Amino acid sequence: MRVRIVKDEEAAARVVAARVTTALAAKPATVLGLPTGRTPVRLYALLRQAFAAGRVDFAKAVTFNLDEFAGLPAGHPATYRAFMEAHLFDHVNLAPRRIHFLDGMAKDPVAECVRYEKAIARAGGIDLQILGIGANAHIGFNEPGAGLVADSHLARLEPGTRRSNADLFDGNVKAVPREALSMGVGTILRSRSIVLLATGVGKANAIGATVLGPVTTRVPASLLQLHGDVEVVLDEAAASKLAMAV
Ligand code: GLP
């Protein structure tokens, strides 16, 4: 893993935005894997700005979002799709048919996950997967446990993960679905390049275990150590449990 530590959240978002714009300049049809959450908000703002300034073109880009809540109807304001529309998709020239999501309303989640894996494969695989990380080191909705599911699947959310998503539901943790559809760790590891973005002291323990700890399903992001092209972009707060942090 390459670890890059920058001063603050703004600088970290800039590093990752530059990765995205550089990838699209080199290959306009880049297949992007995209996260939601508070962490990438600034990244998406920078990408909107870059688009408005004519510095990036999404016309041929393809996107696959990491995960989606189960059971929320299309158009529900707390869906990750709504988040992506508000923060990026409604503001750039991404063709709707090139935007991909797991369907949280699918009657048959297993079939839906098979469809998603096939769609990723048909698109040629994910070129650049951007990730956030949970305070418990989950990636997508791959929660710590005795085992992990490799491919896209229906995942049960940890209470802490539901709490940290409560903001999307006006702070009402009870309204946060108990399940979500998520890419698996195998789906993520099949991406050609991966960038993990983490900011703030609340992620410091998870980052310490991810970067320095053993590879274990108890720390899902630690499996990223098995991939040959992972950049971990951190602000100083998120890096504060790394011995290498200065
Ligand atoms: C959520 C998402 C993850 C995200 C993580 C961190 O539950 N499923 O994809 O990376 O938690 O969220 P945040 O950036 O808000 O801390």
What's the arrangement of secondary structure elements?
Elements: E1 2-6, H1 9-26, E2 31-34, H2 41-52, E3 62-65, E4 67-69, H3 80-87, E5 99-100, H4 109-122, E6 128-131, E7 153-156, H5 159-164, E8 179-182, H6 185-189, E9 193-198, H7 204-212, E10 230-235
Parallel strand pairs: 1-10, 2-3, 2-6, 3-5, 6-9, 9-10
Antiparallel strand pairs: 4-8, 7-8
Helix pairs in contact: 1-2
Bound molecules: 2-amino-2-deoxy-6-O-phosphono-alpha-D-glucopyranose.
Number of strands: 10
Rounded to the nearest angstrom, the radius of gyration is: 17 Å
Quickly count the helices: 7
Q: Could you say which small molecules are bound to this protein?
A: 2-amino-2-deoxy-6-O-phosphono-alpha-D-glucopyranose
- State the order of secondary-structure elements, H for helix, E for strand: EHEHEEHEHEEHEHEHE
**Quick check: average pLDDT?**
96
Distance between the termini: 18 Å
For this structure, the quaternary state is single chain
How helical, in percent, are the residues?
25-40%
Class of secondary structure makeup: alpha/beta
Major sheet: 7 strands, parallel
**Strand composition percent:** 15-25%
User: Biggest sheet, strands in spatial order?
Assistant: 1-10-9-6-2-3-5
Low-pLDDT residue intervals, each spanning 5 or more residues = none
The coarse silhouette is globular
